[in-house]
Amino acid sequence: MAHAQFFEEYEPGSGRKTIGRTITESDIVLHAGQTGDFYPHHMDAEWCKTQPFGQRIAHGTLIFSIGVGLTASAINPHAMSYGYDRLRFVKPVFIGDTIHTLVTVKEKRRDPRRPSHGIVVEMYEVRNQHDETVLVCEHLLLVEYGRLKSAADSSPQ
User: Fold this and answer.
1) Which domain holds residue 113?
2) pLDDT band at 60 (very low <50, low <70, confident <90, very high)
3) Residue 84 maps to which CATH number?
4) Among 123, 150, 151, 155, which is 20 to 30 Å from 36 by CA?
5) CB 52: neighbour CB atoms within 10 A?
6) Phi-psi region for residue 130, left (φ > 0), alpha (ψ -120 to 50) or beta?
7) Distance (Å, whole) CA 83 – CA 90
8) How many other C-beta atoms lie within 10 A of the C-beta of residue 152?
9) What pTM was estimated for this model as a whole?
10) What is residue 131's predicted lDDT score, i.e. its pLDDT?
């Protein structure tokens, strides 16, 4: 779904919540095959029984990928991803857990290299079915200024 929004229209503190997605054994096996990460934490159920979590855990990079993918239901034709900062895997995610992502506009600022764009920083919080935060990161969006404004006349607030 397209949701056109210019830089000026982003409001710090505003946000949204995605739909949920249940993590399956197939997700973990496929991700291991794609990345080459076959660590026993993800693949060896018997070994995991001897570890503190007691069961297999999903790859952090898998949860990051799915958590970000869940946000793709709203596509802004005036913005593109500029990258991610401050990524942390806060709690383990297990087979059968259902995750969703909370997206909150944290701040916005001018882009010193592109006078036609600003940077919007979104906080991503991936949470499980118990509403526990399992992953956090900042998503940087490069967003066009509105047609009638330029970076020179637009305040980042």
Assistant:
1) 7-144
2) very high
3) 3.10.129.10
4) 123
5) 6
6) alpha
7) 20
8) 8
9) 0.90
10) 98
Tokens standing for residue 65: 């990928």
> How many distinct structural domains can be found in the chain?
1
Token output for 86: 């401050």
What is the per-residue pLDDT across 106-155, written as a single tens digit (0 to 9) for each? 999 999 999 999 999 999 999 999 999 999 999 999 999 997 555 455 55
> How far is 157 from 154, CA to CA, in rounded Å?
8
Give the pLDDT confidence of 23-39 residue by residue, as tens digits.
Answer: 999 999 999 999 999 99
Cα–Cα distance measured from residue 123 to residue 51, given in angstroms and rounded to the nearest whole number:
32
> What is the full DSSP assignment across 12-55?
TT-EEEPPPEE--HHHHHHHHHHH----HHHH-HHHHTTSTT-S
- What sign has the CA pseudo-torsion 53, 55, 61, 62? negative
21 located within any domain: yes
Q: 71: which DSSP letter?
A: G
Distance CA 23, CA 40 (A): 18
Does residue 152 sit within a domain? no
Q: Is residue 24 part of a domain?
A: yes
Please name the amino acid found at residue 147: R
